[in-house]
Design goal:
Shape: globular
Number of domains: 1
CATH architecture: 3-Layer(aba) Sandwich
Number of helices: 7
Helix content: 10-25%
CATH superfamily: Glutaredoxin
Number of strands: 13
CATH class: Alpha Beta
Strand content: 25-35%
Length: about 300
C-alpha cells in the first residue's frame, strides 16, 4: 500500500499550485548503480528486499568506498531471463556499464570500485544504450504511483527496453520523476501525455529545460545556474557547457563558472525561499520552496 497524503491534496499538486521551481532540485550522486529486482519494493527498497543479507552487506561495503554512490532497484515489464545491473559514472564524459547476472550472488564477483575507476577489465561492459528510469515507488510516496505508473506505461509502450521502473531517487513532489542516463540528468512533472515528447527530445541529445531539475553530479547552485544559463543562451544541446567552479559569494549566493565553445561564463545566483510546501505526502510539516535566481 502506498503512503496516503496527510495534506488535503497530493504533494505534487501542492508544489505545482505553489509554482515551485524545479531548477536545482535534482538528487545528487556521482555514481548510480541500478539492480534489477522484480518483487514488491518497500519504503527502503534495497534494505527491505529479499536478497540474501550477506550479498547486500558485501555490496554495501563496496558502496561505502565509492564517494557519492547510490543504488536503485529497477524492474521492467515482460523481463524473464537473467538479471540486469547497470553502473552510471558521471562527470565530464559520463559512461554507462551494463552487466547480465545469472543471480544476485554474481554481484559479489564484481569490483564496483574498479568499475568506477574505469578499469580495462570492464571495457566490454560499456554501452551506448540510453536508460530512462521512472520512479514508481509508491511505498515512499503516493505521488510516485499517482503519476509514475502512467508515465512508465506510456514510455514503455513506445520505447520498450530503454525504460525501467525505479525505486525512490528523490523529489516526490515533482512526480513523475525520471533519471536519464548516461547524462545523469533528473526531470520532473512528467505526465502520460507529455512524457514521450520529453523522452524523444532527450534521445536526440537535447535538454528540455522546462522539465529539467538538474545534473545529478553537481551541487544545487550549479544545477540551477546551468539551466539559467541555458535559458539565457537558448542552448538546447546536451553538451557545450562544462562546470569549472562553484564558490560561495555571501549569504545564499554563489558564483558559478562554466566553459563553453564561446568562452567562459560566470553567473551569480541567489537562493530564495518561497511558499511552504510538503516535501512528501507523508510529511506533517512543511518547508519553504526554493528558487535560484540569476542576479548577475
Amino acid at each position: 500500500m502506498s503512503i496516503a497524503p496527510i495534506t488535503n491534496i497530493p504533494c505534487s499538486l501542492e508544489s505545482l499550485n505553489a509554482q515551485e521551481p524545479m531548477a536545482g532540485t535534482a538528487p545528487k550522486a556521482q555514481v548510480w548503480f541500478m539492480l534489477e529486482y522484480a518483487p514488491r519494493w518497500g519504503h527502503k527498497a534495497w534494505e527491505e528486499s529479499s536478497i540474501d543479507p550477506e550479498i547486500r552487506q558485501a555490496v554495501d561495503e563496496q558502496l561505502k568506498r565509492i564517494p557519492g554512490a547510490r543504488l536503485l532497484l529497477i524492474r521492467q515489464k515482460n523481463r524473464v531471463e537473467g538479471l540486469r545491473f547497470f553502473a552510471a559514472v558521471l562527470g565530464e564524459q559520463p559512461v554507462l556499464y551494463r552487466f547480465q547476472l545469472a543471480g544476485y550472488e554474481d554481484l559479489t564477483e564484481l569490483d564496483l570500485v574498479s568499475i568506477v575507476a574505469g578499469s580495462d577489465k570492464y571495457l566490454d561492459n560499456l554501452t551506448d544504450e540510453p536508460l530512462l528510469l521512472v520512479c514508481t515507488n509508491g511505498q515512499r510516496d503516493a505521488c510516485c504511483v499517482l503519476h509514475g505508473i502512467a508515465v512508465y506505461n506510456a514510455l514503455f509502450s513506445q520505447l520498450g527496453s530503454t525504460v525501467w521502473e525505479s525505486s525512490h531517487h528523490g523529489g516526490h513532489r515533482f512526480a513523475a520523476n525520471i533519471l536519464a542516463f548516461p547524462s545523469g540528468r533528473s526531470y520532473g512533472r512528467l505526465r502520460a501525455d507529455n512524457a514521450l515528447g520529453i523522452a524523444q527530445a532527450i534521445a536526440k541529445g537535447n535538454v528540455p529545460v522546462e522539465y529539467c531539475r538538474g545534473n545529478t553530479a553537481w551541487a544545487e547552485p550549479a544545477q540551477a545556474a546551468e539551466l539559467l544559463l541555458r535559458q539565457q543562451l537558448g542552448m538546447q544541446q546536451e553538451g557545450g557547457l562544462r562546470l569549472l567552479d562553484t564558490q560561495p559569494a555571501g549569504d545564499h549566493r554563489w558564483r558559478v563558472r562554466f566553459a563553453a565553445d564561446s568562452g567562459e561564463h560566470e553567473l551569480l545566483v541567489e537562493r530564495v525561499e518561497g511558499a511552504p510546501v510538503h516535501a512528501s505526502c507523508g510529511d506533517e510539516k512543511t518547508s519553504p520552496s526554493i528558487e535560484y535566481r540569476l542576479i548577475d
